[in-house]
Amino acid sequence: MRGLFNKILPAVQATVTRASEAESIVKELFGLAGIEFGGTKPGDITVHDARFYERVLRDASVGFGEAYMEGWWETDALDTTIDKIMRANLKQKLTGSWRMRALTVKAVMMNLQAKTRSGASVEAHYDIGNDLYTRMLDERMVYTCGYWKNAKTLTEAQEAKLDLVCRKAGLKPGMRVLDLGCGWGGLASWAAEKYGCSVLGVTLSKDQVSLGNELWGAKGKKLDVELRLCDYRDVQGKFDRVLSVGMMEHVGPKNHRTMMETIDRCMVDDGVAVVHTIANNRSLRHGTPWIEKYIFPNAVAPSLAQIGRALEGLFVLEDLHNIGPDYDPTLMAWWDNFDRTYGEISNKYDRRFYLMWKFYLLAAAGASRSRDGQLYQVVLTKTGRVQPDHARAI
After folding, report:
1. Residues in a beta bridge with 200
2. pTM score, two decimals?
3. What's the 3-state SS for the chain?
4. Tell me: the pLDDT tens digits for 103-141?
5. Residue 101 binned pLDDT confidence (cut-offs 50, 70, 90)
6. Average pLDDT of the chain?
7. How confident is the model at residue 358 (pLDDT cuts 50, 70, 90)?
8. Are 86 and 367 in contact (CB under 8 A)?
9. Strand order of the sheet with strand 225-229?
10. Class of domain 116-382
11. What is the pLDDT of residues 3-21, one digit of tens each?
12. How is the chain split into domains, by residue range?
């Protein structure tokens, strides 16, 4: 018995030492961001399971997010916690182990957003239930950054954004408009209803097409809008204007050029394109591992350099507008809506989903607040066209 105890004791002592070291390291790192464990400041962390520390060191963003989903830790202001983490650049200090390297290898070796893969990636996020999105979003079902310059509510911010895009594009009655990555058709409906355009929207989400056509088609507002289940690469025809709001962050670095070539092929020579996309401050091959795993599979926002390379030789960049800070209030409004109405759908989306969705929305708000990500709107024309006087419609 004594011999068995002598064999077990070193392993137990090593485990205790390792756990203590992990706790010390994590507390020191988070201290650099002004985050205390057991503190009372907004964004401080309370740990309920001591395994949290080793998990964060081992799995970085995946471990941090999963531990939150499992109730191992909490905070009174998750958006503030993430804001502080980003400002202290902790994500560069906590890179994890094999997960990040595995994602990088996959991104280099494979086209993660190829046609054969894109449908499943879209379905994993956008087809989880319209009952969730109708409660979280505004009346037009707009799931992209609002424009809060003169807005006080989510509805006002989204309508201001839709109109900003339409004015930058110079929409006029009778124009034929292509909406790449149309979502539930919020922008398409605005362009048809307010500007008298005929709009074709394409998406790979079955739920979006079904509800969008119901809202804006013969059963709804009877607008000149058609939402079609179609890969953007397969669109045929010519359009006076091409709009893309919230799709470029999903197409992946290997397909940025293909997206721009699609716009070029589908747009008339004197047309105008407006592309609205979340953007990274650095050129990346893949997204954050936790976001990749739980929220947006295979999505990675482009950098300004990647956008520039994608449009080189095809388009003139008429205007570049960064409304990145507006994502913070947009995400907070979505969180408020989701949190307020969650009880109505809790039978379908369990507590773990609730915490996952909370982590997603509030972490994204904190990242936006710290300027870790941007939101670019670019106005594009073909070489030789007279510069449109409406390109800057701020």
Report:
1. 178, 226
2. 0.89
3. CHHHHHHHHHHHHHHHHHHHHHHHHHHHHHHHCCCCECCCCCCCEEECCCHHHHHHHHHHHHHHHHHHHCCCEEECCHHHHHHHHHHCCHHHHCCCCHHHHHHHHHHHHCCCCCHHHHHHHHHHHHCCCHHHHHHHCCCCCCCCCCCCCCCCCHHHHHHHHHHHHHHHHCCCCCCEEEEECCCCCHHHHHHHHHHCCEEEEEECCHHHHHHHHHHHCCCCCCCCEEEEECCHHHCCCCEEEEEEECCHHHHCHHHHHHHHHHHHHHEEEEEEEEEEEEEECCCCCCCCHHHHHHCCCCCCCCEHHHHHHHHCCCEEEEEEEECHHHHHHHHHHHHHHHHHHHHHCCCCCCHHHHHHHHHHHHHHHHHHHCCCEEEEEEEEEECCCCCCCCCCCC
4. 344 434 445 445 554 445 577 688 899 999 999 999 999
5. very low
6. 90
7. very high
8. yes
9. 225-229, 198-203, 176-180, 239-245, 267-280, 373-382, 315-322
10. alpha beta
11. 533 444 344 334 445 677 8
12. 2-96, 116-382
pLDDT value at residue 96? 53
What does the chain come to in residues? 394
> What one-letter code names the amino acid at 155?
T
How far is C-alpha 1 from the geometric centre of its chain's CA atoms? Answer: 58
> What distance in Å separates the CA atoms of residue 347 and residue 28, rounded to the nearest whole number?
40
**What pairs with residue 53 in β-bridges?**
none
Residue with tokens 């003139």: 316
Q: Which of 92, 82, 93, 91 is nearest to 370 (CA)?
A: 82
* Token reading at 169: 């594009």
What percentage of the chain exceeds 90 in pLDDT?
A: 79
In sign, the C-alpha dihedral spanning 304, 144, 149, 178 is positive
pLDDT of residue 18: 64
